[in-house]
UniProtKB/TrEMBL annotation:
Domain Stress-response A/B barrel: 2-93
Pfam families, per the entry: Dabb (PF07876)
Record protein name field: Stress responsive A/B Barrel domain protein
Superkingdom of origin: Bacteria
UniProt organism field: Roseovarius mucosus DSM 17069
Transmembrane parts of this sequence: none
Amino acid sequence: MIRHIVFFSAANPDDIERIRDGLMMLSRIPHSSHFEVGRNLQSDAIAGAQVDLVVYAEFTDEAALAAYKADPIYAECIALVRPLRELRIAADFKSE
């Protein structure tokens, strides 16, 4: 299984819901076995980084993740969200 986690911060806090709505478009892509978008609870005051939203998805294998990223909805989401975000950090890892 591949776990896909992406952190986002908004350039303007007023755009957080617009970013969330844009990220929710990704839920229509059929290649993930689990997908969710959530607001960060902001409970880690030590880190100093402002993370507003988290995308968490699971994929059966690397081919499913690649198919997800190749879907036209993925490109549509990027076009909508990229101008509104300040930070994006992504990580993919294999889980046993």
